[in-house]
Amino acid sequence: MRLYDIYQKAIDREITGVIKVGQDDNKNVLQELEEYVLTDELSQHFDTLFENYKKGIVANTDKMGVWISGFFGSGKSHFLKILSY
């Protein structure tokens, strides 16, 4: 068996390396959403974010913000971009 054979999608397919937030390209957005790996930890972070977001909608407040922090290369920008979709 070759390494190439263990993946569900072709590993030699074209993948856009940089996609900017707000870029209106449905093909690339769909590919990103289909291939985003949602780990248990990421799922907890999404839950926390949406619970706090809901509090801001239900109660009128201007004292709520979101801080995304992490090490370089940890996926902060990718998390935010997926969230924006």
What would you report as the Rg, rounded to the nearest angstrom?
17 Å
Question: Oligomeric status of the shown chains?
Answer: single chain
Structural class: mainly alpha
Which of globular, elongated, flat, extended, rod-shaped describes the shape? elongated
- Binned, the helix content reads 40-55%
Total individual domains: 1
> End-to-end distance, in Å?
37 Å
| Count of helical stretches | 3
Could you tell me the mean pLDDT?
A: 80
Give the helices and strands as they follow along the chain. Answer: HHH
Main beta sheet, described? Answer: none
Beta-strand segment tally? 0
Describe this structure in words.
With 85 residues, this protein is mostly helical. The chain has one domain (3-84). 45% of the residues lie in helices and 0% in strands. The protein has three helices and no strands. It starts with 25 loop residues before the first helix and ends with a helix. The model has no long low-confidence stretch (mean pLDDT 80).
